[in-house]
Design a protein that fits this description.
alpha/beta; Spore Coat Polysaccharide Biosynthesis Protein SpsA, Chain A; 18% strand; binds 6-aminohexyl-uridine-C1,5'-diphosphate; binds 2-acetamido-2-deoxy-6-O-sulfo-beta-D-glucopyranose
């Protein structure tokens, strides 16, 4: 019958349609599963290829939001922390002799812009290699803001080129009593160590600027005198025991001499006492040559509250007897404030009275 055959045909047509639909569905499901398993395999291969163990990956929660709905937390697998190679013994970034002048005024905002890699508190470490030393630079300070600006302007670029992992600490004596440079330097040593595992300490007068970036602000096998040829002494060492202006001591060397004397109030002699400590401890002074060791000192008048200390000659005559009683092991101070500024950390301290 013609009616029957048309019914049969329509049924057949529907069955065919269903089969085609099922086929599409099957293909779609297969594709979805295939793509998912592909993602997983890529992730697995990446993990296998990495040299690092799972703890090196930090699984952090990143907040993502389209801006229209509340931020959601999304798990993001961070890149592995790359182990950097050690920096070379001599930095390839050094340029040698530098022009150092003090006939312009320094804008610290500009210094900050020119040194974008310096972190708050005056901290820096090279990005491409692991620094050989962790250096805390300590400056004893009071009423020398203009000098400090020059120091920051010149030193930050030099220290970065020297590929050091460094921090700058300006230790400011509070109040109006006689200046005590060594108590401030000892305080700087103690406070810097609370913040980071420094293994080298540079003690730099705020008005002394190196004129050659090959004069590396790091530590050597013997305590180092860095400011060896100052312009004010016609680029000569004024006397062989001279150990002032800028020096570096490793943590070990500093502890071996029991740090610096705490009882020199006012100007003079404290650097000679440190020299005596070094020699008494069986160490010697290391120095760069007089070309590399050239430095400029900012000319200035004698500071108020830092008159020559009349007791200094008597004190340096007795370093040997006093050095193990008076030093970092007997240091007393009170921190009044710590400020992390853009280009340095400033610590204001009460170091007591004479
Ligand atoms: N310092 C201060 N404020 C002071 C005194 C000293 O910040 O009031 C710091 C500063 O880092 C300075 C360092 O301590 O660079 C050494 O100071 P100093 O007085 O021992 O040495 P400086 O060579 O001056 O700077 C010596 C007196 C120069 C008199 C020159 C007269 N023409
Ligand atoms: C010596 C001082 C040192 C001082 C050096 C340079 O005489 O503390 O001169 O001084 N020693 C004594 O007084 C015992 S300077 O010309 O840089 O002001 O560092």
């Amino acid at each position: 019958m013609p009616g029957d055959s048309s019914v049969n045909f329509s049924v057949l047509h529907r069955i065919c349609k269903l089969v085609v639909l099922l086929c599409f569905l099957h293909i779609a499901v297969t594709v979805v599963f295939y793509v998912r398993s592909f993602d997983f395999r890529v992730a697995f291969v990446q993990n296998q290829q990495s040299n690092y163990n799972i703890p090196m990956f930090r699984n952090t929660n990143r907040v993502v939001s389209s801006g229209l709905e509340p931020a959601k937390e999304e798990k993001v697998l961070e890149q592995p922390v790359k182990k950097l190679e050690k920096c070379p013994e001599t930095s390839p970034l050094l340029v040698g002799p530098l022009r150092v002048e003090f006939n312009f005024s320094v804008d610290l905002e500009l210094v900050k812009k020119e040194n974008p890699n310096v972190q708050p508190g005056g901290r820096f470490k090279p990005k491409d290699c692991e620094a050989l030393q962790k250096v805390a630079i300590i400056i004893a300070f009071r009423y020398r803001e203009e000098h400090l600006k020059y120091w920051l302007h010149y030193l930050h670029p030099i220290l970065q080129r020297q590929q050091l992992d460094y921090g700058v600490y300006v230790i400011k004596q509070d109040g109006n009593d006689t200046f005590n440079k060594c108590r401030l330097l000892n305080t700087g040593y103690a406070e810097a160590l609370k913040e980071y595992d420094y293994n080298c300490f540079v003690f730099n007068d705020v008005d002394v600027i190196p004129m050659d970036d090959r004069n590396t602000y790091k530590c050597f096998s013997q305590p180092r005198h860095l400011a060896v040829s100052l312009d004010k002494f016609n680029f000569r060492l004024p006397y062989v025991q001279c150990f002032g202006g800028a020096t570096s001591l490793s943590k070990e060397q500093y502890l071996k001499i029991n740090g610096f004397p705490n009882n020199y109030w006012g100007w003079g002699g404290e650097d000679d006492d440190i020299y005596n400590r070094v020699v008494t401890s069986g160490m010697s002074i290391s120095r760069p040559n007089s070309e590399i060791g050239k430095c400029r000192m900012i000319r200035h008048n004698r500071d108020k509250l830092n008159d020559p200390n009349p007791q200094r000659f008597n004190r340096i005559a007795h370093t040997r007897e006093t050095m193990y009683k008076d030093g970092i092991n007997s240091l007393k101070y009170q921190v009044l404030s710590i400020q992390k500024l853009d280009l340095f950390t400033t610590i204001t301290v009460d170091v007591g009275k004479p």
